[in-house]
Prior knowledge:
Elements: H1 9-21, E1 24-27, H2 34-45, E2 50-55, H3 59-63, E3 72-76, H4 83-94, H5 101-107, H6 111-120, E4 126-129, H7 135-145, E5 156-162, E6 173-177, H8 187-205, E7 211-215, H9 226-239, E8 246-251, H10 253-257, H11 259-265, E9 277-279, H12 283-296, E10 300-307, E11 313-315, H13 322-335
Parallel strand pairs: 1-2, 1-4, 2-3, 4-11, 6-9, 7-8, 7-9
Antiparallel strand pairs: 5-6, 5-10
Amino acid sequence: MEINGLNSNFEKKLLSSAKKMKKTIVLPEAGLNEHVLMAGQIIAQNKIAKIVMLVSDNVLIQKHNVKENDYLKIVNITNSDLLPVLTNALYLKRREKGLTEQGARDLLKNPIYFATMMVDLGLVDGQVGGAEFTTADALRPALQIIKGKTKQSLISSFMIMISENKNFGDNGVYFLSDCGLNINPSAEELKQICFDTVNSARKIMGMKNPTVAMLSYSTKGSAEGDSAIKVRTATELIKNENPDFIVDGEMQFDSAVVKSVCNKKAPGSKVDGKANILIFPDLQSGNISYKIIQRLAGFKCIGPLTQGFRKPVNDLSRGADTNEVVRAIAITVLQCE
Length: 337
């Protein structure tokens, strides 16, 4: 299968970089969703990564005549040889929470749990799912099993927005966070979301000049209110750690991305209207904003993607098309340590 519609410089670099990593990604919904199955075939046939497809029947596999090879494996979760190993490992990991062996077997009938255990045991490097599950259901197993890199880790999400218009962002790419998980993060949590998103931007696209705007309805004290004060405090916390990137806030969106507006509302700000990483004060504003940017401004959208997990596990929009799944798989590869 050819890779069609992934022609931006960012996407070409993304796929090329992923191909060098030689990682294996599990797709728990390959037997449930045609876009996921087709994306897995594209990734495997172009040797971007090795793919493990989870199925519970052969309906879609037969319909699309999917064949196993060195880059593509099919695992039937109802009778796999892995079931005893995964069942025992899941039971041992969750028995203190009251999980029984039978309960573990029942959970593994869910392909998301099956995939997450494969990631946890190192049988695969990462996981992409969520085309048929809500974000809560797609990420719950990972939150229970994979967990964060440390006990203090905050799991957050980010979006990558891509435009062909080179007047936008760094090579037409913006990173937005948090748009999918944390409903009302504290100032301390916004600080961590900021640092994690900068690290994601550097790891995934090699962003050389991260420029962060901590967004609000206020610019540099032009309005008061709990949300504006929270963002202002978060910005101070970030700057107190002497970050090796540009950051300023609190800022309105136009101040963050339009030089003339920034010069008027925030004169002297190093952001200078060139923000390419946008940190939102809460989930509501982030989620609404990325959908507006996607649907009305015509940006390509990758995500929601997660950061902070010990191993990479990513969610998909339930409206994701084949190309969106291909992008998400490539991103997940680049998140692998």
